[in-house]
């Protein structure tokens, strides 16, 4: 089955959906390549990335279409005609067969690309422009197209001449909406791939830049401009994205996030420097970047705080800035603060949350208070997963062990404190968990362990025959 | 002596002077640990704006962690603490538990944890953090002997600490002490809880008390070294001399004057 054909093949009369044997019969020296839908989608998305240079609003129209909303952008490229020409030429230079058109509505433009590439239709002229094209150009699906043909409606003009209610009754509301959009009677917004950033600044280069110093300089200039425009509205950036457009069409986007709105360009500059420096797969300029764009995709209103009277405010700001820098370098999830959880199960009593977003909450968290003049009841180091230990069988049934083997070393127990019984949360539906009896233990060397017996003796643990078995022992933590 | 040479010498002298003064700026800023003898040896306490190293064997990791946490609690004085650790050390020695921190009398709200994947990023992060004067202390927790942590890296950390006044604490588990620019270097072991009380001499199952450390001072740039038993007092948040008994043996005597004195008073 033929999945796609090029222009030459089309001229020879091959068509999509034709069995390969038939095509071979018509044209014996046919070159055949396996269809790769995934790679096609990837290519389309790469082209969409590239198209970001014309407008931030790019939508995919699979399998091989793109919508660009160029409202308000055309003048930057010397008008609609010049924009269209630049785009088509640049894509053709990269080896793609392109057909493009500009119209007041996306559907009308799509219809035009299938029949009259390069057309620019002014507002209000949509109906007249697509009037004479066959109905297949609407892209309404096989069933509807065939249905229209059978009804004798060959061109779009024919369909448009019927009353909308007839069309809706026969082909459904969806088709009549599509038709209305194609004729310029109403429009649906396109569905852009990325949300529109709040602020965008960019710089184009006639001569592509490739050196690190130039890139850094460009970024810091862009940061200045970005900050200036955000400042006017009292905003600060929480998420920033730098996109580097390479001359050969590849686009690399790098994102940094901050815990607090950033209002100084030096900070942005430093964050990007850290990020670029730590990239596992460094920025490859190739033959150079011909455009760099800096956008603030999330912004917040900045609350001006009075600095001088309260030194702590300043300290917290600096800490937040440090956290941002570290997060830019090694990743936001690797810098954490701790929040207490309302549970008595030791391993889930503390929640580690990204510091960028939870610093303020962590600073005001209410931790359980320790009992005065008691020795520590919880270990300082806790194992994520309790480690099993070997305990000789002959111990007092309910009591602590006299010795145990942990990590291939034998520890003789000298002191014991306990047991402290911790029952699992039966109201949670995550399987039956066993009651634990915790002991605080000191060995002959003075090392202190927090060990527990998993399950009550002769009560919770059974072997294969249903008889009580001896419960397992684990080290859960180490005391200072 | 030629003019060029004189000026070169003058430049060098100036450089040395600058290096030395940088050290002097924060020199008098010391925090008493609470243990009388150690404070005397350290000339008043642990120096702020410097790097201190704490070494221990692999299985003594928890004791060393407690000691470092205690030092950090002393020097950071209600300012945030940045704890940088390598992924591997958490597997070996367990994660730092905030509930355990509360039990030691310290504040988990001020702890920001950095989970560095490897040694390079851990070192880089701590150098960065040591330069940030909003912090009270930076702890760098590393496991095993580490090639990358050489004199240059150590010097970098020390300079950053001197510049900002932040104290750097290196927790080196399962590592051998090597030359470095640290102000002090400790070797930590866990110490036994005090023996059972006199009234119950054969009571091995008796309660244990506060955390106790067997701390050996291996290097001290401004004084002698030594080895002591230290105890961490969870209520007062400071170290102290070891108490013989973790709990008072008998009730402290109430004020009961000698009958003879009373007699005299009555007579007088």
Textual characterization of the structure:
The complex is a heterodimer of chains A (480) and B (268). In chain A, strand 12 and strand 13 form a beta hairpin. Chain A has 480 residues and is α+β, with helices and mostly antiparallel strands. A six-stranded antiparallel beta sheet of chain A has the order 9-14-13-12-11-10, with no helix packed on it. In chain A, helix 11 runs antiparallel to helix 12 and helix 12 packs parallel to helix 13. Chain A has 14 helices and 14 strands. Chain A has four domains: 1-35, MutS, DNA mismatch repair protein, domain I (3-Layer(aba) Sandwich), CATH 3.40.1170; 41-182, 5' to 3' exonuclease, C-terminal subdomain (DNA polymerase, domain 1, Orthogonal Bundle), CATH 1.10.150; 199-303, 2-Layer Sandwich (Dna Ligase, domain 1), CATH 3.30.1490; 381-479. The N and C termini of chain A lie far apart (72 Å). Chain B is α/β, with parallel strands linked by helices. A nine-stranded mixed beta sheet of chain B has the order 6-4-7-8-3-9-10-11-12, with helices on both faces. Chain B is 35% helix and 24% strand. Chain B has eight helices and twelve strands. Chain B has one domain (33-196, 206-248): P-loop containing nucleotide triphosphate hydrolases (Rossmann fold). At the A-B interface, helix 13, strand 7, helix 14, strand 9 and strand 11 of A face helix 3, strand 5, helix 5, strand 6 and helix 6 of B. Chain B: This is Protein ImuA. Chain B: It comes from Bradyrhizobium huanghuaihaiense. Chain B: InterPro entries: ImuA, P-loop_NTPase.
What percentage of the residues of chain A does DSSP assign to strands (E)? 15-25%
Strand neighbour order, sheet with most strands of chain A: 9-14-13-12-11-10
Name the chain pair with the biggest interface and residue counts per chain: A-B, 63 and 66 residues
CATH fold type of chain B: Rossmann fold
The CATH superfamily label of the largest domain in chain A reads: 5' to 3' exonuclease, C-terminal subdomain
**Cα gyration radius of chain B (Å):** 23 Å
Q: Spans of chain B with pLDDT under 50 lasting ≥5 residues? A: 197-206, 246-253
Shape of chain B: globular
Query: What is the highest CATH level, the class of chain B?
Result: Alpha Beta
Fourth-tier CATH superfamily name of chain B = P-loop containing nucleotide triphosphate hydrolases
Mean pLDDT of chain A: 87
Q: Could you tell me the radius of gyration of chain A in angstroms?
A: 34 Å
């Amino acid at each position: 089955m033929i999945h796609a054909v090029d222009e030459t093949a089309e001229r020879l009369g091959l068509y999509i959906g034709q069995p390969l044997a038939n095509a071979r019969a018509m044209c014996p020296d046919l070159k055949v390549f396996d269809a790769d839908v995934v790679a096609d989608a990837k290519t389309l998305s790469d082209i969409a990335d590239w198209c970001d240079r014309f407008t931030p609003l790019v939508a995919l129209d699979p399998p091989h279409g793109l919508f660009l909303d160029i409202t308000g952008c055309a003048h930057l490229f010397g008008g609609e005609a010049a924009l269209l020409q630049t785009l088509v030429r640049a894509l053709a230079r990269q080896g793609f067969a392109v057909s493009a058109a500009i119209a007041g509505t996306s559907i009308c433009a799509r219809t035009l690309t299938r029949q009259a590439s390069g057309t620019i239709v002014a507002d209000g002229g949509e109906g007249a422009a697509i009037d004479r094209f066959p109905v297949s150009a609407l892209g309404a699906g096989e069933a509807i197209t065939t249905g229209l043909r059978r009804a004798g409606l060959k061109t779009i003009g024919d369909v448009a001449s019927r009353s909308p209610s007839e069309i809706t009754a026969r082909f459904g509301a969806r088709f009549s909406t599509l038709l209305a959009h194609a004729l310029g009677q109403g429009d649906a917004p396109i569905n852009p791939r990325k949300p529109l950033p709040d602020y965008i600044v960019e710089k184009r280069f006639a001569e592509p830049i490739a050196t690190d110093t130039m890139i850094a300089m460009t970024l810091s200039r862009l940061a200045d401009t970005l900050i200036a425009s955000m400042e006017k509205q009292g905003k600060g950036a929480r998420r920033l994205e730098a996109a580097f457009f390479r001359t050969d069409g590849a686009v690399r986007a790098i994102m940094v996030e901050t815990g607090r709105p950033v209002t100084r360009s030096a900070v942005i500059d430093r964050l990007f420097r850290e990020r670029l420096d730590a990239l596992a797969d460094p920025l490859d300029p190739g033959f150079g970047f011909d455009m760099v764009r800096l956008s603030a995709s999330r912004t917040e209103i900045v609350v001006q705080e009075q600095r001088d009277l309260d030194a702590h405010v300043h300290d917290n700001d600096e800490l937040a800035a440090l956290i941002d820098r570290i997060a830019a370098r090694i990743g936001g999830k690797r810098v954490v603060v701790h929040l207490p959880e309302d549970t008595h199960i030791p391993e889930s009593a503390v929640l580690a949350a990204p510091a960028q977003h939870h610093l303020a909450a962590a600073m005001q968290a209410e931790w359980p208070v320790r009992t005065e003049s008691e020795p520590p009841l919880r270990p300082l180091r806790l194992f994520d997963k309790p480690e099993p230990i070997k305990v000789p069988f002959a111990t007092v049934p309910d009591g602590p062990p006299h010795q145990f083997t942990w990590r291939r070393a034998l520890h003789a127990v000298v002191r014991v404190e306990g047991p402290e019984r911790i029952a699992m949360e039966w109201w949670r539906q995550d399987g039956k968990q066993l009651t634990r009896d915790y002991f605080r233990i000191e060995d002959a060397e003075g090392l202190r362990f927090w060990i527990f017996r998993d399950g009550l003796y002769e009560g919770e643990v059974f072997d294969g025959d249903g008889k009580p078995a001896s419960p397992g022992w684990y080290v859960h933590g180490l005391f200072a | 002596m030629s003019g060029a040479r004189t000026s070169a010498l003058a430049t060098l002298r100036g450089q040395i002077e600058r290096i030395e003064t940088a050290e002097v700026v924060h020199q008098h800023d010391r925090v008493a640990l609470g243990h009388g003898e150690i404070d005397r040896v350290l000339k008043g306490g642990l120096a702020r704006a410097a790097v201190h190293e704490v070494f221990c064997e692999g299985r003594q990791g928890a004791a060393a962690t407690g000691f470092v946490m205690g030092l950090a609690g002393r020097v950071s004085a209600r300012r945030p603490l940045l704890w940088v650790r390598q992924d591997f050390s958490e597997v070996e020695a367990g994660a730092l538990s905030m509930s355990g921190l509360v039990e030691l009398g310290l504040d988990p709200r001020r702890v920001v944890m950095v989970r560095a994947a490897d040694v390079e990023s851990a070192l880089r992060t701590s150098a960065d953090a040591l330069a940030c004067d909003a912090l009270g202390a930076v702890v760098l927790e590393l496991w095993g002997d580490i090639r990358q942590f050489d004199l240059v890296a150590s010097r970098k950390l020390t300079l950053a600490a001197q510049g900002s006044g932040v104290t750097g604490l290196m927790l080196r588990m399962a590592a051998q002490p090597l030359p470095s620019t640290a102000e002090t270097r400790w070797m930590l072991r866990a110490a036994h809880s005090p023996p059972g009380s006199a009234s119950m001499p054969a009571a091995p199952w008796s309660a244990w008390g506060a955390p106790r450390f067997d701390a050996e001072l291996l290097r001290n740039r401004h004084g002698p070294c030594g080895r002591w038993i230290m105890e961490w007092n969870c209520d007062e948040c400071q170290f102290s001399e070891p108490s013989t008994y973790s709990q008072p043996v008998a009730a402290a005597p109430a004020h009961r004057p000698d009958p003879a004195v009373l007699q005299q008073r009555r007579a007088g």
